[in-house]
Design a protein that fits this description.
CATH topology of the largest domain: Immunoglobulin-like
Oligomer: single chain
Strand content: 35-45%
CATH architecture of the largest domain: Sandwich
CATH class of the largest domain: Mainly Beta
Number of strands: 21
Number of domains: 3
Largest sheet: 6 strands, mixed
Radius of gyration: 39 Å
Number of helices: 2
Helix content: 10-25%
Distance between the termini: 174 Å
Length: 351
C-alpha cells in the first residue's frame, strides 16, 4: 500500500511539473531553436552604388512596415504596427519611416556608400500575449527616375516571451535570419538609371591660334537639387545651389568634366567672346555635327547625355599677302644680276 501511494504521489508531481513548464514556455514552432544571441532591435541600412566621381544626391528614401501573415498553428501573429518605433520615435500613421541622404566630399572616390540607417525598437505593451509577431519591410518606389530602387521585401519576426524578452530577426527569400537588413539603390554605370558626365575639351586651330594661351570659361549650374563635381586638372570644384558658378581656364588640349548629372541638372559652359580678336569659336560634340554656338548647355537644346565629350574649337587664320612679291620678282632679279655683272666688270678692269 505504501509503495502504491509513493508511485501515485510521484506521478502527480511529474504531471504538475509538466503543466507548469508548459505554461511557462510557449512553443515557437516556426523556429524551434531561436539564436542564442538575442537581439531586441533591428537596423535598416540604406546603401547607394555610384560612380567614384559622383556625389550622393539629395534624396529622402521612404520605407513601409506592415503586419505580416498570421499562422496560428505555429504561434505566428500579425505584428501590430503601433508596437514599432524608429530611432525612439513612432512610425507614421501609414507605417512608414524615412532615411535621408545628401552629398559629402568624403564620398568622392567611393563606389558604394552607406548613406543612412534607422534603428527599430519595440513597445512590448502593444503585444497581447507571448508569440512570434511577424511584419514585412520594404522600400517604397518614388517618382525619381534617376535611381534603380531595391524592390526587396523582408520578413521580420519578433519573438516575445512571457518574461517580456525579445529576439528580433529578419530574412528574405529563405535566407539566414539577421539582426540587420540593407536596401541598395544604384546610379552607377551607363544603364537606364546612370547619371551622366559632361566633358569639355579645348582645341586651338589656325596659323595664328595661340596654343599656349589660357582661354576663360564660365561654368554655371542653371538647375538641379544636388551637388555636382567639376574636375579640371588638379582642381576640383563643387557646383550646387549655394555655389552655382565657377570660372576656369583651358589651354589647347586641356579639358574639364562635370560628373554625376541627373535628369534635373542643367549646366552651361560658356567661353569668353573672342570675335574681336579674329577667332571663330565652334562648339561640337562627339555625336553631333559642328555647329556655331555661343554656349554649351547640358540636358537642354544641344542636349549632352551618355557621358559626351564636347569640343570648343577656337580658330584664327591670317592670310599672308604674296601678290606683290610675285609681281615684281622678275625686275628685282634683273637688278640683282646687273649689280653682280657690274661688280665683276669693275673687278676685272682694276686687275
Amino acid at each position: 500500500m505504501m509503495r502504491y501511494t509513493f508511485f501515485r504521489t510521484m506521478g502527480i508531481a511529474a504531471v504538475s511539473a509538466a503543466m507548469i513548464m508548459g505554461t511557462a514556455m510557449p512553443a515557437f514552432a516556426v523556429d524551434d531553436n531561436p539564436p542564442a544571441a538575442a537581439a531586441d532591435t533591428l537596423t535598416v541600412s540604406k546603401v547607394l552604388e555610384k560612380d567614384a566621381s559622383d556625389y550622393v544626391p539629395n534624396e529622402t528614401y521612404q520605407f513601409a512596415i506592415a503586419p505580416g501573415k498570421a499562422d496560428a498553428a505555429n504561434a505566428v501573429l500579425a505584428g501590430p504596427v503601433s508596437a514599432v518605433r524608429i530611432n525612439d520615435a513612432g512610425l507614421g500613421e501609414d507605417g512608414t519611416f524615412t532615411i535621408k541622404a545628401g552629398p559629402d566630399a568624403a564620398d568622392i572616390g567611393k563606389t558604394s556608400v552607406a548613406v543612412g540607417s534607422a534603428n527599430l525598437t519595440f513597445d512590448t505593451s502593444k503585444f497581447e500575449k507571448p508569440g512570434i509577431y511577424r511584419y514585412t519591410i520594404d522600400e517604397l518606389g518614388t517618382d525619381n527616375a534617376d535611381e534603380d530602387f531595391d524592390d526587396s521585401v523582408y520578413t521580420m519576426d519578433v519573438y516575445f516571451t512571457n518574461t517580456h524578452e525579445l529576439n528580433v530577426k529578419a530574412y528574405k527569400d529563405g535566407t539566414e535570419k539577421s539582426a540587420a537588413i540593407t536596401f541598395t539603390n544604384s546610379i552607377a554605370g551607363t544603364g537606364e538609371y546612370a547619371h551622366d558626365d559632361l566633358t569639355v575639351l579645348k582645341k586651338v586651330e589656325g596659323n595664328m591660334g595661340e596654343k599656349t594661351r589660357a582661354f576663360n570659361f564660365t561654368v554655371t549650374l542653371k538647375s538641379g537639387d544636388g551637388s555636382y563635381r567639376l574636375a579640371a586638372g588638379n582642381y576640383n570644384f563643387t557646383l550646387n545651389k549655394e555655389n552655382p558658378s565657377v570660372n576656369l581656364t583651358l589651354q589647347d588640349g586641356e579639358s574639364f568634366t562635370v560628373y554625376g548629372l541627373d535628369s534635373a541638372a542643367r549646366v552651361t559652359a560658356k567661353e569668353e567672346d573672342l570675335t574681336g580678336e579674329g577667332y571663330t569659336t565652334t562648339y561640337y560634340s562627339d555625336y553631333d555635327q559642328k555647329t556655331k554656338e555661343t554656349e554649351l548647355t547640358s540636358n537642354s537644346g544641344k542636349a549632352v547625355t551618355d557621358n559626351a565629350t564636347v569640343t570648343v574649337e577656337n580658330k584664327k587664320d591670317v592670310n599672308i599677302t604674296t601678290g606683290i612679291v610675285r609681281e615684281y620678282a622678275p625686275f628685282v632679279l634683273m637688278i640683282v644680276l646687273a649689280g653682280a655683272a657690274a661688280v665683276v666688270f669693275f673687278r676685272r678692269k682694276r686687275a
